[in-house]
Structure formats: structure tokens, C-alpha cells
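pipeline: protein-struct stage 2 | run 1193 | Dinitrogenase iron-molybdenum cofactor biosynthesis domain-containing protein
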Amino acid sequence: MSFGNCGSSYPKTNQEERKQYLKAAGLPILVSIQPRHNKDKKELQLFIKTENLTNSNISKFQILFFASDTNRQLLIPDESKTPELICSIQRKIQPNSIYKCLVGPFVFSQLWNSIQVQSISFTTEDQVRHVIDEEDLNEVILWL
């Protein structure tokens, strides 16, 4: 079972070193994702912590996920009409603070095999919208 793409250029060290690296690289957030699942029941739940590494407030934070099967086909949760799984934080994320988000639980009619983060976007207090591009997603995500 895989949880996203694992090919990161960042050396796997402790979380404080990761934060220093991200700040130096100009990447504004660190997202920790802890999947909890019961594959036998085809359930998926994600616990997500987002830490603001900037000196300004972040608002309208969102992460878009997809679950897929062994053939890399996107799966639609039983209670949904579309495949996207969304973590959305609508309140202000202050500098050097951590906010939590729970995604799920979702039940699928098929066994899921992997979780892929499609995008991370947020708006800063000056109303500028930012999107973490695909190249940097692996740098800002820590799978637990």
C-alpha cells in the first residue's frame, strides 16, 4: 500500500530540520498526514495537521486528495458523487501555529490502494492565493 509519491529530494530527518529546510526554501507550510484505515471494511480516514511557517496569517487553506485502487483508477466514496476528498480550514492559521483537519471516514465499494495529494492551496492575509505546485508537494508533506 502506498501513501502518495515518496520520491523526495529532501533528506529524511527530524521534523525541526524539515521546518528549517522549508523556511529556507521559501515553502510556507508543513502538512503532516496520518492515514487511519480499515482496509477490510474499505474505510479511509485522514488526520491532518497544518503548520504555518510564515510570518503572516493564512486563510482559506485547502488540500485536495484522491484515493485509487491497484489499477490507479480514482475511487468515489459511497456517500459522494465525485472522487475528491477535501481538507478545508476556513479560519485564520496564525504564524507558527498548528491546525488540525479530519477527512473522512469514507467508505468505498472497492478496496483502495493509495492516497494521492492533488493540490494544496491557501490565501494569505493580503488576499494573495497560493498553490503548492506538484514539484513541491512532496517537500511540504510528511506522511506519518
